[in-house]
Every structure is written in structure tokens, then in C-alpha cells.
Amino acid sequence: MIAFENLTKIYTVKNVRKVILDDASYRFADRKNVALMGHNGAGKSTMMRMIAGIELPTSGRVRRTEKVSWPMGFARGFNGMMTGVENVRFVSRVYGCHTETILEQVQEFAELGKSLNLPIQTYSSGMKARLAFGLSLAISFECYLIDEITAVGDRRFKKKSEKALKDKIKDARVVMISHSEKTIKDYCDCGVFAYGSKLYHYDDVNELLKDYRKFC
Amino acid sequence: MFYAIWLQIRVIAALTLRETRMTFGTSHSGYFWAVFQPIFSVSFLMTLFYLIGRQSPFGPSLALFFATAVLTLELYNKLSVSLMRAFTSNKSLLSYPMIKEPDTLFARLSLIACTFIVINVVFYGGLIVVGLGQFPANPEKLVFAFLTTCLFGFGIGSINAILYQKNQAWQHIEKIFARPLFFLSGVFYIPSTMPPEAVAVLKWNPILHIVEWTREGFYSNYRSDVLDITYPLGLGATLVIVALFAERITRKQRV
User: Which domain covers residue A136, as residue numbers?
Assistant: First the structure.
């Protein structure tokens, strides 16, 4: 279960106050692939970070009983001075997974070869993204958070990662931010629309897309 | 409940391993230096005092007397300084939802405590082997004194971490308090033999009490008039509680 309970999120940067959510309560439908839509700056990514537990709400709470990934493609949690292998081991330990199994899977998927034994700071951003993507697939989350990115890497690797993700979400689900109607239709069963610091639920993705076209 | 405790242990263990890697590098010699660097610096100071012909204020061994204070101080200093940067240098870790800031403090505490157990064993063991020390008369007092140093150092270190993240100038202010500790902690003297005016000031230093406790642990006939174990214990516990509350209350401003 993922749910917002009386959640308010307000940013104040340089005296500019921005209300992302105002006392919103919303339960993301269980085991369904949920689309999260809204105009630019509506706070979709912030909401996703709150779901992931990276960011705290101003008041209210986020209830999370399933194993939720970090936003896919996000590689900020890596330590640049540690090698790829060490980072993978650390993350698997924190999530309580068997380190060597995860390591094997990441090695196979990310195709980084010997680079896995080098410090992450020597990686290109593409390599980092491949590692992060491979790691989040290997850990087997129950819910994958996707912020626009459904695939990483070069053309061939994009195909591979897209397919791997689709395989993965047969047993898991996604909460997805996207502005592409095709991607939303492709992945999602239902949706939520962020508008004016409130959240609106849609059982039908087509209804959501209709309103999205009208308001954004 | 059990799951929560297991998760906590798992996270702190993973963080401790990571801290070990970050502090000592990949090579095993990194850990060697972590253990031997304080040992060498203390030995160097002691050699100096031997050379200028200083007599031990208590017992036959100047080295042992000196070590009871210096090793306690080293542990405290290490904790207060290293915990101070725990939040600022671990920001990226907060992207994993189960890792909360206090975990980074606990990880550093456990790594430093383990390192200092090794340092203490090697150092005192070495002194006993070369005939400059004797086996502690009351080992349990040594253990309690060590744990109290950890408690007090953890409290101060955690408060340092919160203040340092609010304002980095705190590191300079902290130094002002930390510097005089070397002279206020009975490194060169027996506090009980000091004039009452001096004792009236010195007894406010919790480290001095812990040093006295350590000495009572080592010497069978060391009687301290200053030592009050409730003071460092009570102050340490209070600081830890205050620090953890303050951390929780200010967490939202930090992220």
C-alpha cells in the first residue's frame, strides 16, 4: 500500500512559497500501475520523492507498506569513491538481499565488465545509469517509481532495459510520471492528476488523458 | 517490531562496513594506520617525557599513567570530530528510505568504538609485555569507563553534527572547547592532589571523571576524591537524549 494522509508539502525558496500539495489524502490503488500526470512544476517529481522516502512532507504522512524503488535512472545514492561492486554490495545489504546474487545479476545485466571494479567517479553518466537501472531491477522491488525514464543507455541497451522492465512489472507495479500519452497507455491501468495542489483519481486512463489535454 | 529491529541492525551494519571502507581505503594497511597512528603519536609524546626525566605522578610507569588519560581523550576527540561531519558527508545516503540520519551517527560510533577497542588492547598489552604496565586491577571499571566515554562522545558528537550542518562555523567554535581538554583532564597530574580551588573548576570536566575511573580500573590503590560516576554518565545520557530529539525535530529543515 502507498497512501498520502493529510499530506501538505510546501517549498519556500528565496521567499517564493510554493504549495505542492495542500492537505491531500490519496491512496494509490493497490497492485495497479498508476500514472501520475500534471503540468510542469506541479510537483510530480517531488511527490515521487516523497513516495520513495527521499523527501519528507511538510505535514501529514506517507504510508508505505510495499518495497518501493528509488526513482528509476536516479544514480545519486552512489558513492563516487567506492567501486561499482562496493556500491552494489552496500545497497543490497541495506535492502536485506543476498549480496552475491544481486552482484551476479547486475554484472550480467549492466554489461560493465571490469569497470565494475573501478570507483564510480570514473564512470560516464551512461554507465552510472546502467548500473543504477540494473541494480533496481535486481533488487526486485514491489513498486517501481518511473520518472519519465523507462530505459537507459545507448540504442541497443535501451531496448534491453525496456524489455527487462516490462518483464519485471509482471510481478511488480509501477507509479509512473510521463508526458507521453503512448507510454501512459502502454504501462498504466489507472491514474492520478495533480492540479492546484490537489490530487484527482481516474479509474480510466483515457479519461485522465482527456483532462490532461484540457488542462495542460 | 522484530522486523524493525532487524532492519535497524542491518542498516547500521551496512553503514559501518561502508564507513570502514571510506575511512581506511581498500587496503588492509589502511586499518593498520588507523590503529597505529594514535599509538605512535602517544608513544612519541611518552618518549619525550621520559627523555626529559619526568617522574610518574602515580605508580612506577609514566607511560601507563599517561595512557589512561590520553587514550580516553583520543577516543572522545575522535567521536566528537568525526560525528560532526556525519550528516554533511552522508547526504547521498538519504536517498535510501530506510537510512535515517541517526543511523550514520550509530555507524560512525560503532566503527570508532571497535577501532579503539583494538587500540586499547594493543597499547595496554604492549605496555604489559615490555614491563611498563600491569594487568588492570579492576577490569570492569575500565570497560564502564570506556563505554561512558562512548556515550558522552556520542552525545557531544551528535550535537556537533546538528550544529555543524546548521552553520559550518561551528567547527571552529567546537575547537575552542576541545583544545583545553588536554590540560583539564589530568594527563600530567593526580586531580585529588590539586588545590581545592583547582579541583572546584576541574570537576566540571566530565572527561576528568572518566580518566579517574580508568585509573581506578588499572591501579588497585588509586583512590580518587574527585570521581563521581553519576556525573559523566548522567551528562552523557542527557546529551544523547537531547541530541536525538533535536535531530528528529530539525530533520525536515535539513533534507
Answer: 84-142+152-170
